Amino acid sequence: MTRILFVCHGNICRSTMAQSVLQYMVNNAGLSHRFEINSAATSTEEIGNPPHYGTVEELRKHNIPVIPHRARQLTKDDALHYDYLIGMDSANIRNMQRIVGNSEKICKLMSFADLDKDVADPWYTGNFARTYADVKLGCEKLLEKLNGK
């Protein structure tokens, strides 16, 4: 089983979106038995809160079920449990390293699409559609890599 943890600042926008998108993809491909997918935050600001309404709305536009989730913070134990710790931007990566230490498991989502770019935080941009497009591309390429395509 491959264990994946998506990480962003608050765990209510990008990481929960990526969790829902990838779970939807693996379910549709009949691969759910091969993956454990979760998400977490680098901060404590949103702990216990559900996904942001903008994330929920954007996922509904694409008929993707929102994973029931409450924001939680990344822990050192997550680095032991998960095979991939996938951050959304450079600041996330730095904070992930601060929390769990340097780990070869830490990477940026868009690196799977061979892009050196961040997934913009819709909390600040308000552009959930743009975030979704990046998350979808990153998750598609991640799944291709994990399926050996």
Model description:
- This protein is α/β, with parallel strands linked by helices.
- It has one domain (2-146): 3-Layer(aba) Sandwich (Rossmann fold).
- The chain has helices at residues 14-28, 53-61, 76-81, 90-100, 122-125, 128-146; strands spanning 2-8, 35-41, 84-87, 106-108.
- It has a 4-stranded parallel β-sheet with strand order 2-1-3-4, sandwiched between helices.
- The chain starts with a strand and ends with a helix.
Helix count equals: 6
- Under CATH at level 1, the class stands as Alpha Beta
Content of β-strand: 5-15%
Uncertain regions spanning at least 5 consecutive residues: none
Helix content: 40-55%
Name the assembly state. Answer: single chain
CATH superfamily: Response regulator
Structural class: alpha/beta
Largest sheet: 4 strands, parallel
Average pLDDT confidence is 96
Q: Could you give the count of β-strands?
A: 4
N-to-C CA distance: 18 Å
User: Could you say what the CATH topology is called?
Assistant: Rossmann fold
Inertia-based shape: globular
The Rg value, from CA coordinates, equals 14 Å
Total domain modules: 1
Give me the CATH architecture, please.
Answer: 3-Layer(aba) Sandwich
N-to-C SSE string, H for helix and E for strand? EHEHHEHEHH
Query: Strand order within the widest sheet?
Result: 2-1-3-4
